[in-house]
Every structure is written in structure tokens, then in C-alpha cells.
Design goal:
Strand order of the largest sheet: 8-15-14-10-11
Distance between the termini: 188 Å
Shape: elongated
CATH architecture of one domain: Sandwich
């Protein structure tokens, strides 16, 4: 009898599932890191939350006591009922526990005024003017506006609070939305305030945030630089043309007045002639109607 080969067995292919966990995501301080379940193996090591096998020093068994820091800014009183206060500068990892206004010995919390807690937002993100080559100057044609791109530009600020400067001159902010800022620079290229380059740099100021967006170079081809001699010649030519037009207008008015006077004289002569002819006709008619006896 011939032996028969056994039928090959079929095995079901099961999908493999992996669960990855990043210890540093969302754990910015020691207490948050130690609150992660032990099965993930996260430890607080050298001021950051990492996987236990990635720690190059001895992990901390306990967390250091929290540090409470107060930062303040001086407000500007505008009137008896209004004042402006710049937002205190804090680092992104700091948790803001409260904001208040200190008036001598009186402390007024922000929550009691607005009815809600004060919210800090991360700084907006700006992109360089020349995104393809950030080190190259941005070419600008006078008469237009400079468009600045970014993200979250209006999250916690309005257009009136944003300032922009190009070199030693202001770049007036015309429009601000969540992703774009448009400012109108001077017609003539401003001077640079930085010794590193002769080209002016565009800077945007949002509260305590100051962002440099790159150098700006005006397009010289679009600039119409007229020499002083040419300007004087143009002014003299314009004056001659204006004077000639005035002379023509005066002569026309004089001719018009003379023509009007001649017309009135001719009209008077015609009226006199008409009267004389009428009188002569009446006399002839009277002589013809009554002949002498």
C-alpha cells in the first residue's frame, strides 16, 4: 500500500497588537509622572518623566516640594474707572493658580470681576517672511502690504494690541486674523536698527512677546527716484502750461465780452432802423390819404 501524505494544517493568522506609551507626554512635573500606573514603567529622572530603562541616573523616590512663585506687572491708570495691565510673563510649564489686582492693601481677584478664571494660552506661532529661504531677505514692492503667516494669532489678543516695526519705522497693522497679519510699511525703506545688517528687520510685538520675522529689502525696480533737476523742470513746465491756460481763458472771456457788446450795438441799430422805417411809412401813408384841395 502506498502511504498518503498528511493534509497540511491551516493556521489562522492573528493580528498582533502593541500598546505604546510616551511617559513624557502630559507629565510635565514629578507628581503627574508618579501618578502614571506602574505597568508603564515611568519614573521621574533628572527633571523629566521617562521610561525606567531610559533613566541614566537614580530615579527620584519622592517629589520635591512645589515652588510657589509670584510674578507681577505694573498697571497704567487711564481714568478713575479704567486701567490697563500687561499680562505677567510666565514659562509654558508653569501652572497659573490665580490672578489678582493689588491696590495698596486691597486684593481683588480676577474671578470676582469676570466670573471666570483667568486663562493663559501658549504663545502664537509665526512663520518667517521668506519660508523657503529664511536667511534670504524678503523682497517687497512699495505701495503694498506685508503678509505675515502664523497660527493662533488672535487666541488671546486683538488687532489694536499688536504692534509691528520695520527697522526704525512703524509697520501699521491693518488686519489680523487667526492665521494672517497684514501691516503697511512706509513707502521708503526704513533704516536698520541692527548693526548686523543694513536691511531693516520686521518685528511683531504681542504683549511681552517679540518675534523677528526676517529682513526686508524694497524692490528698487519699482521705486521712481526723480532727480532734483528733473523735478524743477517738471514744475517749471507745469507752471508754463497753467499760465498759458489762464491767458487763453482771459483772452476768450475778453473776446466774448467784445462780441456781446457788438451784438448789443447791432441789435440797437436794428431797433432804431425799424423805428425810422415805421415813422417814414406812417408819414407817406398820411400824405397819400389827404391830397391838397
Amino acid at each position: 500500500m502506498k502511504g498518503s501524505d498528511p493534509k497540511p494544517q491551516s493556521y489562522e493568522q492573528l493580528p498582533l497588537q502593541f500598546q505604546l506609551y510616551d511617559c513624557s507626554a502630559g507629565q510635565s512635573d514629578c507628581s503627574q509622572c508618579r501618578a502614571v500606573p506602574e505597568e508603564y514603567g515611568c519614573v521621574w529622572c533628572s527633571g523629566t518623566c521617562v521610561y525606567n530603562q531610559s533613566c541614566t541616573s537614580v530615579p527620584a523616590d519622592t517629589c520635591p516640594p512645589p515652588q510657589i512663585t509670584q510674578v507681577s506687572e505694573r498697571c497704567s491708570v487711564l481714568s478713575s474707572s479704567q486701567m490697563t495691565c500687561p499680562t505677567p510673563a510666565v514659562t509654558p510649564e508653569v501652572k497659573v493658580k490665580g490672578v489678582w489686582f493689588q491696590l495698596d492693601n486691597v486684593r481683588v481677584h480676577y474671578e470676582t470681576i469676570k466670573g471666570k478664571s483667568f486663562t493663559y494660552y501658549p504663545n502664537p506661532e509665526f512663520f518667517p517672511l521668506n519660508r523657503e529661504a529664511p536667511d534670504a531677505p524678503y523682497r517687497f514692492k512699495p505701495g503694498g502690504v506685508i503678509a505675515v503667516e502664523g497660527q493662533h494669532l488672535t487666541r488671546a489678543i486683538s488687532r489694536q494690541e499688536v504692534k509691528a516695526r520695520l527697522g526704525d519705522r512703524e509697520c501699521e497693522v491693518k488686519t489680523l486674523d487667526n492665521t494672517h497679519l497684514y501691516c503697511e510699511p512706509p513707502e521708503i525703506q526704513p533704516l536698520s536698527v541692527d548693526d548686523r545688517s543694513e536691511l531693516p528687520c520686521l518685528k511683531v510685538f504681542m504683549g511681552n512677546l517679540e518675534v523677528e520675522l526676517g529682513r526686508v529689502q524694497y524692490d528698487s525696480d519699482s521705486l521712481s527716484v526723480v532727480p532734483l533737476a528733473a523735478q524743477i523742470s517738471l514744475a517749471a513746465g507745469a507752471a508754463v502750461i497753467i499760465l498759458s491756460v489762464l491767458v487763453v481763458i482771459l483772452m476768450y472771456r475778453r473776446k466774448s465780452k467784445q462780441a456781446l457788446r457788438d451784438y448789443k450795438k447791432v441789435l440797437l441799430q436794428l431797433e432804431t432802423l425799424e423805428i425810422n422805417v415805421g415813422d417814414q411809412c406812417r408819414k407817406e401813408f398820411t400824405v397819400a390819404s389827404f391830397p391838397p384841395f
